[in-house]
Design brief:
Elements (H helix, E strand, L loop, with lengths): L8 E6 L5 H10 L3 E6 L4 H7 L3 E4 L16 H5 L4 E4 L1 H9 L3 E17 L17 E14 L5 E5 L7 E4 L4 E4 L11 H12 L8 H16 L4 E5 L3 H14 L3 E5 L4
Parallel strand pairs: 1-2, 1-3, 3-4, 4-9, 10-11
Antiparallel strand pairs: 5-6, 5-7, 7-8, 8-9
Helix pairs in contact: 6-7
Length: about 260
């Protein structure tokens, strides 16, 4: 490969959301490499990951009760763009000097969000004839009542007066709704704007480039040696066999394993 397809990378810190894998899928569909790590991963792991941006996932906890469910301080000290989603937004608000309150009415399911301020993630997007109205998916009980210093409220819903907040100076953004699910119609565009427009990532994490990178890596590792591969005929071993054969040709010897 003439370039490292892993150089532009997004770190997703998981707070236990059922949708975290979908966040990773949307980022990868945008052509960007990413990894999911638990929110309480070591400071060293976060610092050495080399993220162009960090996404804080949703989660089932409340910032009132889950004092240990905090974003590591290093996240806010690194000068890296951040996107908080659902609980990730509430964690940002609570930790950065805003206020999160319990809601008397839980918001779960389809919702209509109205943009109330400028935000690079939302500007120009609309799902109705009214500019700035988005059909989204909500799943929360608590809500942000006051944004932290430096942030501005940029969207609202019927049950969440602050449905999105933005600090464009520090490139920090947060959404109460879930852009990663298909029910949020503009969700893929919103996430693409974050990883490309805000974080400056390219679109090199594609199937063709992944294959080319894997072939180059195998050739460098194997050299002029031979490889013996146990081949069951399943998807995993068959894909490995195809990649190895493309990389080293007759240096590969497959042994079929009859697993019954």
């Amino acid at each position: 490969m003439s370039h490292d397809i892993h150089a532009d990378r997004i770190l997703i810190l998981d707070f236990g959301s059922q949708y975290t894998q979908l966040i990773a899928r949307r980022v990868r569909e945008a052509g960007v490499y990413c990894e999911i790590l638990p929110f309480d991963v070591s400071v060293e792991r976060i610092s050495t990951f080399g993220a162009r941006g960090i996404i804080l996932s949703g989660g089932p906890e409340s910032v009132y009760d889950a004092h240990d469910f905090r974003a590591p301080d290093v996240v806010f000290e690194a000068g890296t763009p951040i996107l908080g989603i659902c609980y990730g937004m509430q964690a940002m608000a609570a930790q950065l000097g805003g206020e999160v309150v319990g809601s008397t009415e839980r918001e779960f399911g389809h919702a209509r969000v109205i943009r109330t301020g400028d935000c690079v993630l939302l500007d120009g997007l609309s799902d109705t004839s009214d500019a700035g109205e988005l059909d989204v998916w909500m799943s929360h009980g608590d809500k942000v009542a006051r944004v932290p210093p430096g942030f501005a409220a940029v969207a609202q819903s019927n049950n969440a007066p602050i449905a999105a907040m933005a600090d464009p100076t520090r490139h920090w953004y947060a959404l109460q709704f879930h852009p990663e699910v298909t029910h949020t119609l503009q969700g893929k565009e919103i996430l693409s704007r974050f990883v490309h427009g805000v974080c400056g990532c390219g679109s090199d994490w594609t199937a063709d480039n992944i294959i080319e990178d894997a072939v180059a890596t195998v050739r460098a590792q194997v050299g002029d040696q031979k490889v013996l591969l146990g081949l069951s005929g399943g998807v995993d071993s068959s894909v490995v066999a195809a990649l190895l054969h493309r990389a080293i040709g007759d240096q590969l010897h497959c042994i079929f394993v009859d697993n019954g």
